[in-house]
From TrEMBL:
Catalytic activity: Hydrolyzes proteins with a preference for Tyr or Phe in the P1' position. Has no action on amino-acid p-nitroanilides
Classification via InterPro entries: MetalloPept_cat_dom_sf, Peptidase_M7
Gene Ontology terms, MF aspect: metalloendopeptidase activity; zinc ion binding
Name assigned to this protein: Extracellular small neutral protease
Enzyme class: hydrolase
Length: 186
């Protein structure tokens, strides 16, 4: 994964040689020396939503290359919880792979659960809310209403996350608590 990140940087610097660089990716060169950029997560405190959390993570993994979500309880920096909270679901996170994601039962009954889990995971990967966006946008969250079942990031969102993770875990990140204050629809 570090190799991919390095390649992504190299490609960004020299976009006209994409094909040759890709072709040489497996030929020679020093092997990666640092740990891969994996974000380990734990679903054990959100058993009701474990499969939705895994699907949401898989949806991210299918579209981004600079970070990978891997379920691993003992190594987890990202933990999912479930319960009832009048404030709804939230992500308490540094926006860079650490934190707690809380899935609220009431919202989980109202909205497509995998969209909730993938959306909250998007916060843990660094994306903010954008409730005014269309259903095709994951980070529009509950904005488009309860009928929206899109649970994958769009190309813009995936590109943004790849950019945010181009340097792996390097950098400093501000801790935030992001509540899903979903707009009321008539
Ligand atoms: Zn949100």
């Amino acid at each position: 994964m570090l190799r991919k990140a390095f390649l992504a940087v190299a490609l960004a610097a020299a976009t006209t040689v994409v094909a040759p660089l890709t072709g040489h990716a497996s030929a020679g060169g020093a092997p990666p020396t640092a740990a891969a950029v994996n974000v380990y997560y734990d679903t054990s405190s959100a058993p009701t939503f474990a499969s939705a959390i895994r699907q949401g993570a898989a949806n991210w993994n299918a579209r981004v290359s600079n970070v990978k979500l891997v379920e691993n309880r003992s190594a987890a920096t990202l933990r999912y919880r479930e319960g009832n909270d009048p404030r709804g679901s939230y992500a308490s996170t540094n926006g860079h792979g650490s934190g707690t994601i809380f899935i609220d039962y009431t919202q989980a009954r109202q909205y497509y659960v995998t969209r909730i889990t993938a959306h909250e995971t998007g916060h843990a990967l660094g994306l903010p809310d954008h409730y005014s966006g269309p259903c095709s946008e994951l980070m529009s969250g509950g904005g488009p209403g309860t009928s929206c079942t899109v649970a994958s990031p769009n190309a813009t969102e995936a590109a943004r996350v790849n950019s945010l993770w181009a340097n792996g875990f390097a950098g400093t990140y501000e801790w935030k608590v992001i509540y899903e204050q979903v707009p009321v629809h008539s």
